[in-house]
Amino acid sequence: MTVRRAAALALGAVSLLADAPAPQDASGSGLSAKNGRVDMPLERPADYRLVWSDEFDSPGLPDPAKWRYDTSRNKQGWYNHEKQYYSAGRPENARIADGKLILQARRERLDDDTPDDYGGQDYTSARLVTRGLAEWKYGFFEVSAKIPCGRGTWPAIWMLGTGGEDWPAQGEIDIMEHVGFDPGVVHGTIHTKAYNHVAGTQIGSQVTLDDACTSFHRYQLDWSPQRILIGVDGRAYMRFANDGSGDHARWPFDRPEYLILNIAVGGDWGGKKGIDPDAFPARMMVDYVRIWQNPGQ
């Protein structure tokens, strides 16, 4: 498994920063108290142990003991007005080959043998989740992936909380998002009830990887009770700290979350500049997913 690092990481601008009180970093890392953009090493703590992984070594469909297909809103449409139909058990959209998970968005209509939940979409894709199979509270997460470019593509590696609340109260951690009209710019973002894109208060940052769509990179999350760090290839570019207030609207990240891998098509952000039909089929390839945790937590 070969992971090639970009020759240089050009740090982008912070997305929207909330006017929150500047939190103190209880981890003692020496980080600036400002949430959002940082530039610092990101390393897995030496005492963490591997608790879950998928190396994608067995050809065929994704392992049902590790992944489920999320098809829950195919009929009525997805939350951000994306244009894809998420299939289940369809190798054209999700399969393992040559030691890689391949998620593929395709320009096609399912007119033959139409599934009951088909909403007439012009694109198919896949959305894999660990919900109900594996969830984690805190840890170091690493996903080695090569993402698609092309206007209208919207791949993501992200997490949602299992507390039962509606979005965004359950907490969302976006380890990697990329919109194809802005090639090479990857985003790390958090959403909570207090900080979210609907209110225009989400907290995040971005980094430019010139070869994001041609090379594998290690997309990383270091999540502790004190703070969240998001980075790539051993360098953190986004930070969000627990302000210690105990306010669930500000820090819902004290409960387990599950992992999501998907390629959306179009939508409020991914389709902001339209969809190029010639960009499809579009693939996100995943070399591995690995999760480590502190045995004492």
From TrEMBL:
Signal peptide stretch? 1-20
A single GO molecular-function term is:
hydrolase activity
Q: CDD domains from the xrefs?
A: GH16_laminarinase_like
Keyword list (alphabetical) reads: Hydrolase, Signal
What domain of life does the native source organism fall in? Bacteria
Question: Which InterPro entries does the record cross-reference, listed alphabetically?
Answer: Beta-glucanase-like, ConA-like_dom_sf, Glycosyl_Hydrlase_16
- Boundaries of each GH16 domain copy? 15-297
Check the record and name the Pfam families matching this protein: Glyco_hydro_16
The entry sums up its family as follows: Belongs to the glycosyl hydrolase 16 family.
Q: What is this protein called?
A: Glycoside hydrolase family 16 protein
Q: What organism, scientifically named, is this protein from? A: Stakelama saccharophila
